[in-house]
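REVIEWER CHECKLIST
Item 1: Sequence provided? yes
Item 2: Single chain? yes
Item 3: Sequence as submitted:
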Amino acid sequence: MTDEAVRAAFPELDAIEDEELRTGVVDAWTTAMAEHDVEDLRSVPWLPPTQRELSLRDEYLVDHVRDVAAGAISLAAALLDRRGPVLDIDTDTLVAGALVHDVSKLAEFEGMDDTAVYDLLGHPYYGVHVVARSGLPIELAHIVLSHTSRTTVEPATIEAEIVRRVDEVAAAAIRWRATDDLRTV
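Item 4: Structure as written out by the authors:
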């Protein structure tokens, strides 16, 4: 997949003002795609184990990542509006982190099947590797590593906290399709 295809999949890239950061996010996705023979990013499932359990085969990673990016942008805007500049949210870091938070899934799954990366390393260690190799700042590696309870790393920045919480809500919105009580899934 070309840079243009990644940019088309994630129009939220345009919200990143720093061209080098934007290019690094695109590079992270194109690198992961090339390493795992992913030709159509839009066909990558969201989270196969959960999708199998809940019979939700029609959920896709791009849609989830876009939900997280949109939610993170909206939450940051609301917080900044109410709390002012004292909060000091770096919007470029926030959007870039939201866009790469699940890049690991390209290594964790082949279609709907789990890989050894998912089984032995788990989510999101490969993503930290891709982010570092793409020359992205350590703050983005931190967002990738701390966005999930599958690691012991807790968010240390407001950007990481926002991505983690919005990711949880975006995942709950998907699970909500299969239940009327989120405590059951």
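Item 5: Key structural point noted by reviewer: The mean pLDDT is 95.
Item 6: Recommendation: ____
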